[in-house]
Amino acid sequence: MELSACIVVYNGCDEALRAAQTVLQYTRRHPLTLYLVDNASPDGSGARLEAAVKGGALSTQPGQKVEVRCRRENGGFGTGHNTVLPELTSDYHFILNPDIQLTADTLSDLADWMAAHPDAVMARPGLRFPDGRSQSLPLRRCALRPMVYRQLPFLKFWEKYNRAYLMEGEDLSAPVEIEFCTGSFSAVRTAEFKAVGGFDEHYFMYVEDADLTQKMRTTGKAYLVPQYTAIHAWHRAAHRSLKPFLWQTGSLLRYFHKWGFKF
Question: Is the pLDDT of residue 1 over 80?
Answer without folding.
Answer: yes
